[in-house]
Amino acid sequence: MNLDGLKFGEDGLVPVVVRDSVTGAVAMLAWANRDALERTLESRQATFWSRSRKAIWVKGEVSGNRMEVLSVTADCDGDAVLYEARLSGPACHTGRATCFHEPLGGAPIEAPENLDLAPLFAILTSRRRELPEGSYSTKLFRKGLDHILKKVGEEASEVIVAFKNPDDDALAGEIADLLYHLAAAMTERGLSPAAVNETLARRRRP
Q: Which residues of 21-162 form beta strands (DSSP E)?
């Protein structure tokens, strides 16, 4: 489907959902006209139409919290659009990661505790690409995969020792160190977290 296949409203607008490509969370909802969509496709910067100001606006042009759009997808009816984007900061003007943070109908059901490694992988990917001076991750990546794997082995041994001791805080710290170095090895090797998630999902199937 191209832009001609979209069903713009009488006001010439279509709703745009922005999803964080790293966490999968819905970051925000905004509106776009054809011009905004064309600019988004050309610049890869999330661009919308402000209904209050009656003008085109680029997310982050004031706050600096830009959104690099990786893909633009229409829904099956052509009356809504999805921006899959890499976020450089909070999506919401309140400073929250997502604009959707006001529960309706009482408190939300608590999700089970889970390890959220998405921010770690996002940072490591950035460090691997930019190699900023003074970063421990930069030192790891510059020394290469063999060095990182050596660190994985060392951290794994320390986790085993920590499990034999009663200090839970120390154990959590050692596990965090192991996960960090394992994530660094995956990043250096080019193995995406999605590949591991898909493997785990297949194993959960009956």
A: 26-32, 47-50, 55-58, 67-74, 81-87
The C-alpha atoms of residue 44 and residue 162 are separated, in whole angstroms, by 46
Higher pLDDT, 105 or 84: 84
Span(s) in the chain for CATH 1.10.287.1080: 118-204
Q: Taking the CA of residue 15 as centre, how many other CA atoms within 13 Å lie in the half-sphere pointing to its CB?
A: 7
The beta-strand segments (E) located in the chain are 14-20, 26-32, 47-50, 55-58, 67-74, 81-87
Location of each CATH 3.10.20.810 domain in the chain = 3-87
Decide if pLDDT at 130 tops 80.
Answer: yes
C-alpha to C-alpha distance for 62 and 138, rounded to whole angstroms? 30
Q: 2-24 pLDDT, tens per residue?
A: 899 999 999 999 999 999 887 77
Q: What is the reported pLDDT for 117?
A: 85
Two structure tokens written together for 78: 């052509």
Dihedral of CA atoms 143, 147, 144, 23 in degrees, nearest 10, equals -110
Parallel, antiparallel, or unpaired: how do β-strands 81-87 and 14-20 relate? parallel
Q: What is the pTM of this model?
A: 0.58
pLDDT digits (tens, 9 = 90+) for 153-165: 999 999 999 999 9
Topology, domain 3-87 = Ubiquitin-like (UB roll) (3.10.20)
CATH number belonging to domain 118-204: 1.10.287.1080
- Lowest mean pLDDT: which of 7-11, 27-31, 61-65? 61-65
